[in-house]
Every structure is written in C-alpha cells, then in structure tokens.
Amino acid sequence: MFLIRNLTRVSPTTSSIVTRFRNSGSSSSPYTLASRFCTAQETQIQSPASSNGVDRSQYEGLRPTREGEKPRVVVLGSGWAGCRLMKGIDTSLYDVVCVSPRNHMVFTPLLASTCVGTLEFRSVAEPITSIQPAISREPGSYFFLANCSRLDADAHEVHCETLPDGLDTLKPRKFKIAYDKLVVASGAEASTFGIHGVMENAIFLREVHHAQEIRRKLLLNLMLSDTPCLPKEEKQRLLHCVVVGGGPTGVEFSGELSDFIKKDVRQRYSHVKDDIHVTLIEARDILSSFDDRLRRYAIKQLNKSGVRFVRGIVKDVMPQKLILDDGTEVPYGLLVWSTGVGPSPFVRSLGLPKDPGGRLVHQDHSIRPFFAIFFCISSLIPFVLCYWPIKVAEREGKYLANLLNEIAKANGGRANSAKEIELGVPFVYKHLGSMATIGRYKALVDLRESKDAKGISMTGFVSWFIWRSAYLTRVISWRNRFYVAINWFTTFVFGRDISRI
Ligand SMILES: Cc1cc2nc3c(=O)[nH]c(=O)nc-3n(C[C@H](O)[C@H](O)[C@H](O)COP(=O)(O)OP(=O)(O)OC[C@H]3O[C@@H](n4cnc5c(N)ncnc54)[C@H](O)[C@@H]3O)c2cc1C
C-alpha cells in the first residue's frame, strides 16, 4: 500500500523533471512546452527589457501558467500569515510557490524558551513542507530559499534573489516568478530607530538563529567569567544581561533568563551566582498593552526574580556598553534588542499606499490595516497587512486561503480573471485577549477585548498553566507538540541543558 502510494506520488513529478531536462536543450520557443521554468535566453526572447527599465535578461524563472495548468499562488514569507494561508489553500485548485529566506515557520511565542535551553531549537521550527505537503509533492509547487526584492505588478512577476547564507556553495542568483495570485506575507523587521551600534552589537530575538546566538553567547560568558584572575568589574560585565524593550517579547525573555539564573546557574555555576544580573531597559511603561493591575503584578514578580528595571532611552550602543539619554553608561556582556518592529526594506520599496508608520494600508477590500500580508487579485489590489499579534496574522491567512479557494472555484484563479468576482464578507478582526509569561511558573492572561473592557483577566500559576496549555495545543504538528512536551518534562526533572555546542 505504502509503495503504491509513493509510486503514484512520484510519477508526475518524475515525468515533469524528465520533460524539463528533455526540453532544456531546445529553446527555440520562449517557453518550452512542458517545463514551468524559463531560461535567461528565453526570457530575453520574450521580453528584452522590463517595463521598469530593469534588464530582464539576467533573470531566469518560473514562466506564467498556461491553459491546462493550475493557476499559481505565490506566497512571499513563511511566517504565521503565509503558513496559515498555505495550509488552507486547496492544492487541487492552485499550485503553491513559497519564497522565503527560511524553509520553516518559527513558533515565536516559544522562541524565548530556546535561548536558555528550556526548549530545543527544533521544537519551535516547523518545516514548510509539513505545513503544505503539496510543495514537496506537486510538480508545479515549489519552495525557493530566497528573498523577494521587487514586485512588478504590471507584469505579474516577483523578482527574487537566492540566499547563499554566507557560504560560497552557490553564487547569488536572481530569478523571477510569474504569479496568478500574490500574497505578500513578508512580516516586519526589528526596529532600531537608527540608534548607532544596535545592528553591530545587539542580538535581536526574531529567528531561531538569533536564539542560537543568544544561547551561545550566554553560555560563553558564563564560562569565561570563571577565568582565573579576571577583574571583578570585567566578570560582572560579562555576566550582565541587558534586554532593551519592555514589550511582551522583552519581558518573556527576561522571565526565562531569570528562571535560568535562579535554577540552573545557581546550581551549576555557583561561583558566579552573585554576579549575574538581568536589566530590562524601557523608555515608557513595560507591557503597556496590559492594564495597570496586570502590569504591576508582572513588575513585582520580575523584581522578585532579580530583574532590574531601568527607565531610559538608549542613545548609543558600543561593543561592551550602552549609553542612555541621561549619560548613564551600562556595561553588558549580552545585549538583546526587542523594541518592536517596523516595515522591511522590501515593504518600503513597494510602490503602494502606506500609513505614516510605513505599513501598507488597505485599498479596495476592507481588511484591517496591519502590515505584511498583501493580496493581489489581478488589477484589483486588496491587501491585508498584519503586524502583531499572531492571531491577526493567522486569521488573515485563513481568511485569504478561503477567499482564494472561492475565487478559483468561480473560475477566477488565473491572473486578470477575477475582476468581476464578488469578494464576499470583508475580514474583520476581533481581539480575543493576550497572554504573557513572566517566569517562575507565573503568567498574565487577559481575555478582554481591550484593557478597559469587562471580562476575565488573571495572573499567577493558573494563568501560567493556561498559557502553556494554550501554546502546546497550538504548536502546528504532532511531532513538535511531542518535542515541546518532552523538553518541558526533561527541563522540569533534570534542569536545562547548559552544554555549549
Ligand atoms: C520572540 C517573539 C515572541 C512573540 N510572541 C508572540 C505571542 O506570544 N503572541 C502573539 O500574538 N505574537 C507574538 N509575537 C509576534 C508574532 O510572531 C508576529 O505577530 C507574527 O509572526 C506576524 O506574522 P507574519 O506572518 O506577519 O510575519 P512573520 O511571522 O515575521 O513572517 C515573515 C516571513 O517573511 C519572510 N520574509 C521576510 N522578508 C522577505 C522577503 N523579502 N521575501 C520573502 N520572504 C521574506 C521571513 O523570513 C518570514 O518567513 C512574537 C514575536 C517574537 C519575535
């Protein structure tokens, strides 16, 4: 049975690869008959220069779809919105092509836990092909490890660049992809507010490789701080962990870090236990999206865990210290920057209407003006932009998947064919609440529509239990759910893994 299933799965892909190779030598027509790819020469024959003056001859890529082929949805980004959308797309109606600099989705709410070893990195990374298996099975569906650098909405093409990731395995290559429907779900970028030295000296917390860098540096500093004859000041600097930004990410990370210090460092690095500290720097109020009662509780608990709060604005960041606006110098060994997000250069480069914050704003089809998911149906360009939180991104992804499926069923899947189709009820986002963990088996749960509305809000161990249960059930695959549960169990019983690998 297994063999039969695999044979049937493999055959269309294999035949398509065979045809691609067979056709690759005979390029007299702009696009070879069966291959979905076109070469640079073929592109040149078809169109020597793009409408925007960019020489297209350097681009190879995926040609436009033809009659008899499924229309193509191109998804830029493999975050919450993009992945939820890909999961919901009916692959009997569309081919799905995803372009992203990472081949997995990051389960961001649990990312802070990986920095200190509560969870392993694999537990929070979900491969795209397990979210949408058609990407690895269907002959017309692909994942490309690349960044999208340009959108040519007139030509229905996106221009991309491969991501060699610092290794010289392949010279950077440019290619283009023709789309029938485009979803821009490329998220946001960490904000530095142009502060000097942030990029060079601080570590962000947005991707798995950031968490790996934080963990490596934290453990390195712990080990180096035990070096014989190290001046006291230098030891304290190495062991000073500074977090800039008192939003949910900064607070959750500070909570994880203080848990690690209280439990694991005190037991296993007892020589340094009195020198290691966490400082959280925030310009305004921490956790400003929560009400006063919850915020006060969080501050009290974090204080009890040894987290120091400093109110101030960072003016300059140097390799071993940062300077605040009042001139205070704060030496650090580890600096984590979490001051929110802003539009990425790609979103900035899109010639589409934006709000003063640089977020794309909705035009024709009423979907909340958040940023990052942008949906383009031929000449009609409704777009949704999502920002924070996950619930917005996910629901927009689900909504768009359903909408695209309906459009394809009404024969509007192909480019320029959906103009007359009724797009149905616009997306409306309803806020269902927020949660944040603060360490020491404590969390905040606020199930109200806004912080002034009536409803349930709670703190403490029960909230922490709700937080953990909620996120465990929302981990995408059973494999990762299992990993997360096992990691939590082993951390509880044996403590965190402190080996610096
Ligand atoms: C540590 C952390 C904890 C968080 N915790 C919570 C929480 O508890 N609750 C909550 O609601 N929210 C939380 N968030 C916020 C939440 O993760 C975001 O709201 C959500 O990820 C937004 O989804 P998105 O799909 O718009 O963007 P993202 O998830 O950021 O995905 C963007 C994708 O686009 C890709 N990309 C970027 N540029 C390009 C390009 N040029 N071409 C192609 N692809 C590109 C990226 O690699 C990525 O795959 C947290 C965020 C972080 C970092």
From TrEMBL:
Ranges for region Disordered: 43-66
- Primary location group: mitochondrion
One matching Pfam family: Pyr_redox_2
Which compartments does it reside in?
Answer: Mitochondrion inner membrane; Peroxisome
Occurrences of domain External alternative NADH-ubiquinone oxidoreductase-like C-terminal (ranges): 431-497
> Which Gene3D superfamilies would you find in this protein's record?
3.50.50.100
Enzyme class label: oxidoreductase
Query: What is its membrane topology?
Result: Peripheral membrane protein
Write the record's keywords in alphabetical order, separated by commas: FAD, Flavoprotein, Membrane, Mitochondrion, Mitochondrion inner membrane, NAD, NADP, Oxidoreductase, Peroxisome, Transmembrane, Transmembrane helix
The record lists the catalysed reaction(s) as: a quinone + NADH + H(+) = a quinol + NAD(+); a ubiquinone + NADH + H(+) = a ubiquinol + NAD(+)
- The answer to whether UniProt assigns keyword Transmembrane helix to this entry is yes
UniProt lists the family membership as follows: Belongs to the NADH dehydrogenase family.
State the name under which the record lists this protein: NADH:ubiquinone reductase (non-electrogenic)
